[in-house]
Design a protein that fits this description.
This protein has 53 residues and is mainly beta. Helix content is 0%, strand content 36%. It contains no helices and four strands. A four-stranded mixed sheet has the order 1-2-3-4, with no helix packed on it.
Length: 53
């Protein structure tokens, strides 16, 4: 089972809400999370390849 934080990113990011956590799969196959605040997106990659994964 894959951990997916937040909501799936809408097909049209313009319909997203500020300060809401979303997740989406990047073209590289990695899962990322993002939030939007003040019109700026903040991205983070989720990684599960470490000893504490």
């Amino acid at each position: 089972m894959t951990f997916l934080p937040g909501r799936p990113l809408p097909a049209d990011p313009q319909t997203s809400s500020e300060r809401t956590l979303y997740h989406a799969q990047r073209t590289s196959g990695e899962m990322g999370t993002m939030t939007r605040e003040g019109g700026t997106w903040q991205w983070r990659l989720l990684r599960g390849d470490g000893p504490d994964a």
